[in-house]
Write a structure and sequence with these properties.
The complex is a heterodimer of chains A (about 140) and B (about 325).
Chain A: H1 3-30, E1 32-46, E2 49-56, E3 87-89, H2 92-103, E4 112-118, E5 125-131, E6 134-135
Antiparallel strand pairs in A: 1-2, 1-4, 2-3, 4-5, 5-6
Chain B: H1 3-12, H2 18-30, H3 33-57, H4 65-88, H5 92-116, H6 122-133, H7 135-140, H8 144-155, H9 160-172, H10 174-197, H11 203-228, H12 235-259, H13 262-281, H14 287-316
Helix pairs in contact in B: 3-5, 3-13, 3-14, 4-5, 5-6, 6-8, 8-11, 9-10, 10-11, 12-13, 13-14
Classes of the chains: A alpha+beta (about 140), B mainly alpha (about 325).
């Protein structure tokens, strides 16, 4: 096999992955931010590490952040499509403490929100998890 | 057919003389590290790659995201360079190990990206992108084990409901099992033929063939297992299973020792080592510790492989193997 062909075959997947992560990084930086309340969260453990699975609580979210004061409910947490935004990955070391905090969520002491990088018609990217308006790590 | 049986047939058909048979066997005894080397390197690669995947999965918070990406892609790049270097310098075993590591790094990179940008495509999307992106590596590799692992990943993309229905039918109906075993055997034969037609260049066909045979074998074992041992699945049974495998390997090694079969002794000794490593690796705690543990195990196997290469000639001179 030619050296150049071998090199191209080997490097191609790496370039694709690098381009994909750069593209996502660009989107996350440049899209505007919206903050939405979430509910139904529950820590999970899968191959990609620990994450919380959540649904957006549209009744408790501020729709004035969007065009015409209308919440684009169909653009977030889509089912069965690539890039579904229902997960927030957390560090393994803090997952247990977060789990305990979630266990007390029914007491309404804590308000959970997720900040998204959002642009109409594109996949939103979850950026931050907030508890009572602060970064989730501060509440642990 | 094993080499010994093949040579016996050749001697019977007067293709080679008895002296030539002895010479070939002596030569092969002194150069039979191929299987051991391949297996050692694939297992070492598996440990190191899994370790990296687990460390990525641990979502190591102390490290900024950019550093994680740089570290991830730098490791990936170094494995690719390793594969390229070994391909150019005709070191096939190491090339396969680096290709396998690169394959695992594709999974780790997708995992890291999903983690950083909080993506969720489910297992099917994850596995599908992993298999598609790693096609070049699986085609370049000559390792059947790697090709089988890749095939497993590909089949895992199929709908879980469909698979569930399929396996329910096979395992709950006797005619389903018979049908499955016959089909799997036919598929295995067909892929073997295709493999021969392609002049044994594409290992994927060989892997599909072996996978079909394994599936038929597992289906048969599962039936025996579900009828005979289904009710005894508890901790005691797990302990007995571990003990059974350990005793099995010890008996095989003892038998090889008694028969003075150095090849069999080495294979079984290696399997025993791999088994011990897997057993200890499974005792690790969280993802991060397990990740480092797996990487250490991988390097330990590489070290053992190196020492084995350096000392095997001396081992063969020992009295018991003369």
């Amino acid at each position: 096999m030619k050296k150049s062909l071998l090199a191209v075959l080997l490097v191609l997947p790496l370039v694709c992955l690098l381009a994909w992560s750069c593209y996502l990084s660009f989107e996350r930086r440049n899209f505007s931010e919206v903050t939405l309340s979430i509910t139904g969260y529950d820590p999970r453990d899968l191959l990609s590490g620990r994450y919380i699975a959540y649904q957006i609580d549209w009744d408790a979210s501020d729709c004035s952040q969007f065009e015409n004061n209308l919440c684009p409910t169909n653009e977030f947490c889509k089912e069965e499509t690539w890039g579904r935004q229902c997960r927030f990955y957390v560090s393994e070391t803090k997952a247990y403490a977060l789990e305990r905090l979630f266990a007390r969520r029914n007491s309404k002491d804590n308000v959970f929100q997720v900040v998204f990088a959002y642009q109409k018609g594109r996949q939103p990217i979850a950026k931050k998890l907030l508890i009572n308006g602060k970064d989730w790590r501060e509440s642990l | 057919m094993s080499l010994k049986n093949k040579l016996n047939t050749w001697v019977q058909r007067s293709l080679i003389t008895k002296e030539q048979q002895e010479k070939i066997l002596t030569f092969e005894r002194n150069n039979n590290s191929g299987f051991v080397a391949k297996t050692a390197l694939v297992i070492a690669g598996l440990f190191i790659g899994l370790g990296i995947c687990l460390i990525v999965a641990a979502n190591w918070e102390d490290l900024p995201t950019l550093y994680k990406f740089v570290l991830n892609f730098a490791t990936f790049g170094s494995f690719l360079y390793g594969a390229y270097y070994c391909a150019q310098n005709k070191r096939p075993h190491f090339k396969d190990m680096f290709l396998f590591l690169s394959f695992l790094m594709v999974g780790a990179s997708i995992g890291l990206t999903a983690q950083t940008f909080n993506l969720n495509g489910g297992w099917s999307s994850f596995a599908l992108s992993w298999t598609l992106l790693s096609i070049p590596y699986v085609l370049l590799s000559r390792s059947v084990s790697f090709n089988i692992i890749w095939s497993f990943l590909l089949f895992s993309c199929l709908s879980q409901d469909l698979l569930q229905e399929f396996f329910d039918y096979i395992f709950n109906h006797f005619e389903g099992l018979v049908w499955f075993v016959l089909t799997a055997s036919a598929v295995a034969y067909a892929f073997d033929m295709i493999y021969d037609v392609t002049k044994k260049k594409i290992m994927l066909f060989k892997a599909f063939s072996k996978l079909s045979v394994f599936s038929a074998y597992i289906a048969l074992i599962n039936i025996v297992f579900s009828y005979g041992l289904a009710h005894s699945y508890n901790h005691k049974f797990t302990f007995l299973a571990v003990l059974f495998v350990a005793l099995f390997l010890i008996c095989r090694m003892f038998w090889a020792f008694k028969e003075q079969n150095i090849s069999s002794f080495k294979h079984n000794a290696f399997l025993a080592e791999a088994y011990i490593f897997i057993f200890f690796a499974s005792l690790f705690d969280d993802l991060l510790k397990s990740g480092f543990g797996f990487i250490l195990c991988g390097f330990a196997i590489l070290l053992m492989f190196y020492l084995f290469k350096k000392t095997s000639k001396h081992i063969q001179k020992l009295e018991i193997f003369k």
